Amino acid sequence: MGLLSSAGTGKIVRIVGKMDGAKYRDILEENLLESARELRLGRRFTFQQDNDPKHKAKSFPTVFSSSKVKHELVANYSHLFWVQGSRPELQPYMLLAHTDVVPASEDDAWEVPPFSGDEKDGFIYGRGTMDDKGSVMGILAALEYILMKGYTPQRGFYIGLGHDEEVHGLNGAVNIVRLLKERGVKLLFVLDEGSAILDGILKGLDGPAALIATSEKGATVLKLSVSMPPSHASMPPRETTIGILAAAVKRLEENPMKRLFGLGPEGGMFEHLAHKFRFPLNFVMSNLWLFAPLIARIMERNETTNAFVRTTTAVTMFNAGVKENVIASYAEAFVNMRIHSAQTLKEVLECVESTVGDPRVKIEVVYGFDPLPISPYDETSFGFQIIKKTVLDMFPSMIVAPGMCIANTDSRHFKDLSSSIYRFTPAIYKPGDAQRFHGINERTSRENYEGMVQFFFRLFQNCDIKKLPESHTSVHEL
Ligand SMILES: CCCCCCCC/C=C\CCCCCCCC(=O)N[C@@H](Cc1c[nH]c2ccccc12)C(=O)O
Ligand SMILES: [Zn+2]
Ligand SMILES: [Zn+2]
Q: What pLDDT, on the 0 to 100 scale, is given for residue 99?
């Protein structure tokens, strides 16, 4: 049996059952197996290969041959798909994912080589399996199935697969947005990576919670540098470029940005979740107006929950020196900050300048943007409610709440095309998984990958619902 076929006798067969019966089972399982193989290829799976018609035809033959699907390359490597709906008067929506990954070193302590795509204990390991090739393959596999089934969506939709999300999406996502703007497209909603189902990550919360992020933090990359004439190491100045810069970054690390917990969308998120926390946290979370400062002090002890409390400061690169007996004439450090929704880029820059407090340290903004607007999540918000319904179709007792993306996604470039931007993938993450993003042992379970395919398969159909579910049963609403 293949990688997913034994698991496929569970969830995937249920999808097949809803389709046209046994006729499709073999084809679908074979296809799922194929797409899982592609996922396992890690770095070797690039859409450059996919530009080879044979490769495309092999992986997603129906997607690339259907008359309903228009595919175009953007900026050479990004992909834009348009899936035509039967009712052109309905506003289209858009799914996003990205094919590029951050580097991974074979020298780090991976349990399996990061680009082997090896499977161990039910997990497929490899750089990109969580961020974000699982979504790429999940979306395309679901599209393949729905087309094979002969389903014609009523509402048209776009799929955008960026190739440079990890370097700001300035060629991929930005050019996809430019094209759509030129074509006068406005989107009903946009769905990208950026949040998930958290199980055991928020301490005190009973059971998993699906957090559909309605916003994401702002960000800035700062370059701090110190220059002075080089000199002989035997006659050192009292302070060196390296010492001055090291002291500056240390001051930034020792003086975290102020606590803002409860003043951004994370406030709504925890209030929504309050009744699922154990006593006394349920009471505390229901009264953030009073207890937010106390909760912030608890949450800041953990690096994942700290990200909800404040603008974070990460010193990510430090370069200096050319020779061990020459006083370095130049030292530079890069600081990556993620800006809490209750702060602006301008405020953060003022704060950094005052904390560094040394005119010898030059501070330059390499890149920066304010926190993103908060997308609607009320009963009438089509995108939010359809994503929620799709989660509940798969996991009927799941708690679903609006969430907050603490990192950044390509979706931020789409804010002129839609006011309803959501960040969510249906993967279930447990304690320790947050550290796998950009870290070692990045992996996806068979179940998470299957869930991804199921989720998009159902979402495509749910987007054709004429009327929003009035009160879709969820634990939250019981
Ligand atoms: C960061 C992971 C935290 C995990 C929290 C707990 C689990 C939450 C569940 C799920 C999903 C998290 C998905 C995160 C998507 C992150 C995508 C990404 O890595 N984007 C880059 C973009 C980027 C690249 N360079 C810069 C520089 C400055 C700002 C952004 C970027 C990123 O955010 O680093
Ligand atoms: Zn990503
Ligand atoms: Zn990433």
A: 94
Q: Which two tokens stand for residue 426?
A: 């249906």
146: CA distance to ligand 3 center in Å? Answer: 28
Which residue among 408, 428, 429, 452 has the greatest number of ligand 1 atoms within 8 angstroms of its CB, and so is best to mutate?
A: 408
Q: CB of 469 within 8 A of CB of 383?
A: no
Give catalytic residue positions.
100, 165
The pair of three-digit structure tokens given for residue 343, joined into one six-digit string: 């702060």
DSSP string computed for 198-252: ESSSSTTB-S-EEEEEEEE-EEEEEEEEEE---EETTS--SS-HHHHHHHHHHHH
- In angstroms, what is the span from residue 101 Cα to ligand 2's centroid? 7
CA 133 to chain CA centroid, Å, is 11
Residue nearest ligand 1's atom 4 by CA: 434
463 within 8 A of 146, measured Cβ to Cβ:
no
Q: Which pLDDT score, from 0 to 100, does residue 7 have? A: 26
| Assessment of whether the complete model's pTM goes beyond 0.90 | no
| DSSP class of 277 | B
Task: Give the pLDDT score at 469.
Answer: 74
* Alpha-carbon distances of 120 from 112, 170, 225, rounded to whole Å: 8, 36, 44
Reading the block at residue 27, the tokens are 């084809």
Residue 195 beta carbon below 6 angstroms from any ligand 1 atom: yes
- Per residue in 404-449, pLDDT tens? 999 999 999 999 999 999 999 999 999 999 999 999 999 999 999 9
pLDDT in tens, 388-398: 999 999 999 99
Length of the chain: 478
The best mutation among 132, 166, 211 to test binding of ligand 1, ranked by most ligand atoms within 8 Å of the C-beta, falls on 166
Q: According to the model, what pLDDT value does residue 35 have?
A: 52
Distance CA 333, CA 318 (A): 4
With DSSP H G I counted as helix, E B as strand and the rest as coil, what are the percentages for the chain, rounded to 5? 40, 20, 40
- Cα 162 to ligand 2 centroid, rounded to whole Å: 10
Complex prediction ipTM: 0.95
Write the residue with the smallest CA distance to atom 30 of ligand 1: 408
Amino acid at 365: V
All residues at 6 or more sequence positions from 52 whose CB lies less than 8 Å from its CB, including other chains:
none
101 lines ligand 1 (CB under 6 A): no
% of the chain beyond a pLDDT of 70: 86
CA of 165 to the centre of ligand 3 (A): 7
| String of DSSP letters for 145-185 | HHHHTT---SS-EEEEEES-GGGTTTTHHHHHHHHHHHTT-
